[in-house]
Design brief:
The complex is a heterodimer of chains A (220) and B (330).
Chain A (H helix, E strand, L loop, with lengths): L24 H24 L6 H29 L9 H23 L4 H10 L1 H18 L3 H7 L1 H8 L1 H18 L5 H28 L1
Helix pairs in contact in A: 1-2, 1-3, 2-3, 2-8, 2-9, 3-5, 4-5, 5-8, 6-7, 8-9
Chain B lengths: L19 H4 L2 H26 L14 E2 L14 H6 L12 H5 L9 E6 L5 E4 H6 L4 E8 L4 E11 H8 L7 E6 L19 E5 H5 L4 E6 L2 E2 L9 E3 L12 E7 L6 H5 L23 E4 L10 E2 L7 H4 L13
Parallel strand pairs in B: 1-4, 2-11, 5-12
Antiparallel strand pairs in B: 2-3, 4-5, 5-8, 6-7, 6-11, 8-9, 8-10, 12-13
Classes of the chains: A mainly alpha (220), B alpha+beta (330).
Chain lengths: 220, 330
């Protein structure tokens, strides 16, 4: 199957000795199941009542945590692929990105349902009034066009360069998600965890900036 | 009636007329009836008391209290489970996660313990905790607790009105505020190195708020001494204010002329005012305060309940704030 994903290096460039496991058809199924484990854990916790005294809060925050984690994982695919010379990793990027969107939607759904009783009259003013909610909502909305154009035919229809430009929105998404998390924790001056994510994102985005500058220099 | 022949002057049979000797004792009869019905009511109350006995969790030393007579001090709402009360805590000296204090507060040493009472008082002195435990009769009070974060509990505290202590140290005419300083000991509290707040954690009340009978000096909950994570051995419980106003593990009570600089107000003045009365009409900058989630109540999808003005204690404390703009003095 010829892939139009720009990062997908043609199979001929892949060194044969590298991890055939990653190319195995079952690898994607395995990743799919693994990516559903956090959700399964929370659903089980909600049913068995092991999410602590405030299960609603645990669910909302848990889904948010996993959105950010999957965003980081998605952004890590390309750098890690290049650092370790493992082109096969590119196969998993789309699924990871879609899971980030999936957990983001669950995060919003939990907030809207468990915190706001699905009342639009409560949700909309909350989004308008509170910067950290607004930023989180924007971050999720920005993922929408990316998820909508994630299938192969959309890539072909858009053309790879345009598709890639569109999908650079993920950088804005992750920065907004980080800001959302930072603001949420700012009330307690509790930045330790936010700092960890910020450092990871800084490395992942910083690497892109550095390599873009290098490319430009070698090109120029 | 319309067809009765005898209109207006029907007389009962002689046997039904109350004898004069009896009706002349009307007052005595009324007294007896009153006493009887009163007794019946008391019996009912006593029976309900016995039925409503809060079961002890049998985890810590017993600290019994008699039902408080202070108006508003005993809500009949369903109690929040002991497990939830003791595992979902904000006690940042032991970590900012709700589950941290229950895990880490074992290192808190509650004996020996003293509380220094100083400042604008005629009789400043240091009380030993054993002395404080005997200072006034222990009462059981079932209070609603509303956290500024938007959740609430119903907790059966054991303690007595802070005013009992205040009366004994005799505040001077200059005393306008009371400052509560809580323990800050790096050896016992793992998170004191963090910069979440400035330590020690300090809270404060206006003197009239501190003197209100609902302001409770708490030593226990659920009929037992306070678990460390809930602020052992001595804490405050001010039911009409957001939970953070009620300092835990108090070591010093200072009477001042000026409004004390409190920890949360110092950290984020726009979010946490000095008064911090529970008020559904004044939002926290980052969330609405109109509703609250009652911990452990109903299922996951239960609707949140409406937050009440002064957490439902308006009848008892509303007059303290007469004429104040509570939107400005939040």
């Amino acid at each position: 199957m010829p892939s139009a994903v720009p990062q997908a290096v043609p199979p001929t460039a892949a060194p044969a000795r590298r991890k055939p496991l990653l190319l195995h058809p079952a690898a994607k199924v395995l990743l799919f199941v693994a990516a559903l484990l956090p959700l399964a854990w929370y659903v089980w916790g909600a049913v068995a009542n092991t999410l602590g005294a405030n299960p609603a809060e645990a669910l909302i925050r848990g889904m948010g945590d996993w959105t950010l984690r999957f965003l980081c994982l998605t952004l890590a695919v390309t750098p890690v692929r290049q650092w370790t010379n493992t082109p096969a990793l590119a196969r998993f990027r789309r699924m990871l990105g879609l899971f980030a969107f999936f957990y983001g939607c669950l995060h919003f759904l939990c907030y809207a349902w468990l915190d706001k009783d699905l009342l639009l009259s409560d949700i909309l003013p909350d989004i308008a009034k509170r910067p950290f909610i607004l930023v989180g909502t924007l971050s999720l909305l920005l993922m929408l066009p990316l998820a909508a154009t994630s299938f192969n035919r959309a890539i072909k229809a858009l053309g790879a360069p345009r598709w890639q430009r569109l999908h650079r929105l993920v950088y804005v998404t992750v920065l907004l998600a980080l800001l959302h998390f930072f603001w949420m924790r700012a009330g307690k001056n509790n930045f330790a965890e936010v700092g960890v994510y910020a450092a990871i994102v800084a490395v992942l985005l910083g690497w892109r900036v550095v390599s873009a500058v290098r490319r430009r220099r070698t090109a120029g | 009636m319309l067809f009765l022949k005898d209109r207006g002057f029907q007389h009962p049979a002689a046997s039904e007329i109350t004898p004069r000797t009896v009706y002349e004792q009307r007052r005595r009869l009324l007294q007896l009836m009153a006493a009887g019905s009163g007794g019946l009511a008391m019996a009912g109350w006593a029976a309900r008391d016995a039925m409503a006995q809060i079961p002890r969790p049998n985890k810590l030393a017993a600290l019994p209290g008699t039902r408080s007579a202070v108006p508003g001090a005993t809500t009949m709402e369903k109690l929040t489970a002991y497990t939830d009360v003791t595992t979902y805590n904000n006690y940042y000296e032991f970590g900012t996660d709700k589950s941290d204090p229950a895990r880490a507060a074992g290192s808190l040493k509650t004996r020996p313990w003293t509380v220094a009472v100083e400042g604008e008082v005629k009789k400043p002195r240091t009380f030993d905790i054993e002395e404080l435990l005997k200072l006034a009769p222990m009462e059981e009070r079932v209070y609603r607790l509303r956290c500024v974060e938007g959740w609430s509990m119903v907790i059966p505290w054991v303690g007595y009105s802070l005013s009992e202590l205040i009366k004994r140290v005799e505040p001077t005419g200059n005393a306008k505020f009371v400052e509560f300083v809580t323990l800050a000991d790096k050896k016992q509290m793992p998170e004191l190195g963090s910069h979440v707040l400035s330590w020690p954690y300090v809270e404060g009340l206006r003197l009239d708020e501190a003197m209100n009978p609902l302001t409770l000096l708490a030593f226990g909950l659920y009929g037992e001494v306070l678990p460390n994570q809930n602020g052992a051995p001595i804490r405050l419980a001010v039911p009409w204010k957001y939970g953070f106003k009620s300092g835990k593990s108090i070591v010093k009570i200072r009477f001042t002329e000026k409004q004390p600089a409190t920890s949360w107000n110092h950290a984020a003045a726009s979010e946490y005012g000095f008064y911090s009365n529970v008020n559904p009409n004044v939002d926290h900058p980052r969330w609405s305060q109109a509703k609250e989630r009652r911990i452990g109540e109903d299922g996951l999808f239960a609707k949140k309940r409406a937050t009440l003005m002064f957490n439902g204690y308006e009848a008892q404390v509303g007059q303290l704030y007469a004429g104040m703009d509570l939107k400005k003095l939040y």
